[in-house]
Amino acid sequence: MNESRTRRRGEELIKAIHDAALEEVIEVGAGRLTMDGIARRAATPRTTLYRRWADPIDVLLDALYHQHPVEEPTPGADDLRGDLIRALRLMVEWAFSPAGRAVAAILTDPRSVALMSDALFERVFAGRGGTFTRTVLEHYAERGHFPAALLTPVVADIGEALVTKRLIDAAAPPTDEDLAAIVDQAILPAIGLGPSSARGS
Amino acid sequence: MNESRTRRRGEELIKAIHDAALEEVIEVGAGRLTMDGIARRAATPRTTLYRRWADPIDVLLDALYHQHPVEEPTPGADDLRGDLIRALRLMVEWAFSPAGRAVAAILTDPRSVALMSDALFERVFAGRGGTFTRTVLEHYAERGHFPAALLTPVVADIGEALVTKRLIDAAAPPTDEDLAAIVDQAILPAIGLGPSSARGS
DNA sequence: AAGGTAAGATACAAGCGCGTAGCTAAGCAA
DNA sequence: TTGCTTAGCTACGCGCTTGTATCTTACCTT
């Protein structure tokens, strides 16, 4: 009987557990996350979990910490509007990834938030979740496409904020038209590129 | 021993349980909400809860449903900017109320969302949580302060979206200066009232 | 080939939330 | 006052999660 061909160890096992934690939190929520649930999903005894982590949230935060950083938007040619839309689309993709969903689940769980270290918050948020459009906007501001003074913290947040609200309000993911509307009607006017100059299609 | 002077009944008891449910969900999160916890906090036997509700989320949703609708912003004199700031302040106040925090806790809990009826969603959200600035904007658009065509769904969401992001990112509530920045740098430009005409202080 | 490391399979008692049942007694109305 | 309704109290068995302990065995290193 060659059933258990491979017994997972080290990296491989840990990755399986991390994945299980992310899947589990998406399904049951941060509050109902248990060692049992994660272990069952990862098909490993609980003992293995306790050897490394103290509680389910610990596993989850560790899983998030070891996620690959999200892709950075790379401003391309001379297309501010298009780059902004692409940046927002990157954000939407991240939001629908296991990591993105897990972060959403965690953020409103009192216990999880309390245990969330600044380091993780930095890594998951300030580092990426919060600034998709900022990279693009800074790029074009430096090149004089619009006054750099207009690129305030508030303005840098407009796109992400509106997409976030869309994700909360509606079940379906925003279409490219939705993202374009956000860019045209909110971001571009804020940096002085109103309908007069940005009216493309 | 006149300990148990009053035995609560009907309305009074239900309100105590509703309050307990809201407090409980804020403290432990939607996932860890239990009949036991609510009952303990309301100082009533679990039996009483089961007589009316099937599970903890049921209690919580009922509590939210019976909350007083949030105050509507009332556009005042001739002060669009000031009215917008006041509308956002109303939103911040609601967000920090027990009901506001409870809604936040629920929205990312898979089980709760699944049980949330359209009626409740309507009453709690579309009805109020989503549109503080819209009321104000519509008022001034009708009076020709700016082109009504610019008041798109996206534009109506800008203020709420940015405040929401602020609430998620930062622990401290936004100050009036923060709200003013949102109005000046994001909302007003979007309706064609950029720095040239809105530069107040 | 030998030995150390760590995963896998049990098993266990303790604690808690669940849902129900039975009873007592307070509040309210006729 | 009588009697209906309903809150308060206690208790039970069930199942799940917890944290730990013990043993076997696969994998990796030397």
Automatic annotation (TrEMBL), chains A, B:
<dbReference type="InterPro" id="IPR001647">
    <property type="entry name" value="HTH_TetR"/>
</dbReference>
<feature type="domain" description="HTH tetR-type">
    <location>
        <begin position="11"/>
        <end position="71"/>
    </location>
</feature>
<dbReference type="InterPro" id="IPR036271">
    <property type="entry name" value="Tet_transcr_reg_TetR-rel_C_sf"/>
</dbReference>
<keyword id="KW-0238">DNA-binding</keyword>
<dbReference type="InterPro" id="IPR009057">
    <property type="entry name" value="Homeodomain-like_sf"/>
</dbReference>
<feature type="DNA-binding region" description="H-T-H motif">
    <location>
        <begin position="34"/>
        <end position="53"/>
    </location>
</feature>
<dbReference type="Pfam" id="PF16859">
    <property type="entry name" value="TetR_C_11"/>
</dbReference>
<dbReference type="GO" id="GO:0000976">
    <property type="term" value="F:transcription cis-regulatory region binding"/>
</dbReference>
<keyword id="KW-0804">Transcription</keyword>
<dbReference type="Pfam" id="PF00440">
    <property type="entry name" value="TetR_N"/>
</dbReference>
<dbReference type="InterPro" id="IPR011075">
    <property type="entry name" value="TetR_C"/>
</dbReference>
<keyword id="KW-0805">Transcription regulation</keyword>
<dbReference type="InterPro" id="IPR050109">
    <property type="entry name" value="HTH-type_TetR-like_transc_reg"/>
</dbReference>
<protein>
    <submittedName>
        <fullName>AcrR family transcriptional regulator</fullName>
    </submittedName>
</protein>
<dbReference type="GO" id="GO:0003700">
    <property type="term" value="F:DNA-binding transcription factor activity"/>
</dbReference>
